[in-house]
Amino acid sequence: MKKKDNIFVCDVCGxxxxxxxxxxxxxxxxxxxxxxxxNHPSNHSSAKKEQFTSLKNANYxxxxxxxxxxxxxxRVLGGGLVNGSVILIGGDPGVGKSTLVTxxxxxxxxxxxxxxxxxxxxxxxxxxxxxxxxSEVKVMNTSYLDLALEQLEREIxxxxxxxxxxxxxxQTMRTSQTNSLPGGAVQIRECTSQIVEFAKSNKIPVFIxxxxxxxxxxAGPKLVEHLVDVVLYFEGNNETDLRILRxxxxxxxxxxxxxxxxxxxxxxxxxxxxxxxxYDTHSNLSxxxxxxxxxxxxxxxxxxxxxxxxxxxxxxxxxSKGINTERLSLISAVLTxxxxxxxxxxxxxxxxxxxxxxxxxxxDFSVALSLYSSFTNRLFPKGSASFxxxxxxxxxxxxxxxxxxxxxxxxxxxxxxxxxxKTKNRLSENGITGIEIVEYDTLQEALINIFK
Length: 452
Ligand code: TYD
Ligand code: MG
Prior knowledge:
Bound molecules: thymidine-5'-diphosphate, magnesium ion
Strand order of the largest sheet: 8-7-9-10-6-11-12-13-14
Distance between the termini: 79 Å
Largest sheet: 9 strands, mixed
Radius of gyration: 26 Å
């Protein structure tokens, strides 16, 4: 049977098929199909060079890691930069991706900055603004990846451990390997695999910047996550200067680790004590309560702000910043059912201070406390915090790492913490004392006692 060597790819969403299609079955876009020629190695000449190597006798010391100059970035990367690794930095336009990589250049002897986005002048002005020491940064303004990589092969010093390459952004790059438009799924994939090959064969770390686009007009970073070694997302919003760098994939370390930065006049600054930035002990108003979450390995004290007001329309609104709206609906439903209060008929809003986003279920308890506080107009006690997951039955359930959470609260001078049952035992096993620990079995019991 003749082997088919062409595949058809949707240039918008990356859907692949063996057959031509007029309308993409995945995203519904018309005329987005691109035909890709798949190159099968004609004979096995290249495969002959590959051979098995035994792990048993291999003699590798631990992976060599380079200091990125940012303590937080090192941690998010799992201990520093690894040579030959490809790191994707995704984020909304304007969040500070280019700023971050420009500041990185300062820490390396030589950096190669390939930009298809900004002019030389723009990059120069930013470099001047955010860096203090002068290091060698070579800038190339191009969208043609083949040309850039060809030049790089010539320019990079072989076996030098102190160089990085930056591609800003992957959506502006194009390669002659395929004839589709820059920014499309096909180009992005092809360019990324070319970059990965370059990084591996030259043993040089490469940062790829990718924009997240809400409209979906330009293909996003999701398309290439499987091709690269590390995927970092830079999160933040216009309302705060805080930026959170989060690892969602890391072949060299743990994931979901976070680093916290602040966007200043002169670029990004690391926030060395992040907990202090996500709450405000002075604003003791109804609707506010404090919780403690774990992001990666980092415990963070977070202020949860709840607002319960009479509904404006027949179907009440649910608005949530920082936690999933479904989770908010679930908690308000539990409050209504288990406490017999008519909270559900109201408009309900939740906001985590500082633009924090979390999926840690340990925030549930604090969300319930904030909603109840706003609904009843009673104050959450000063100097205290809470953590725990809420079940549909109204029970407060244990969450991961209670020791880390309580230790962080102790460090910050909290005097009291509301927790699920059996937490006390676990804490005393770990020798954590010096903070009042109050256990609750059900939400009902907790609310009645906390807001006495
Ligand atoms: P930028 O790094 O260009 O964002 P991205 O590459 O993710 O699109 O940063 C954009 C914003 O950051 C811009 O609105 C201006 C602001 N900014 C500062 O506040 N301080 C600075 O020192 C720099 C360079 C940028
Ligand atoms: Mg940019």
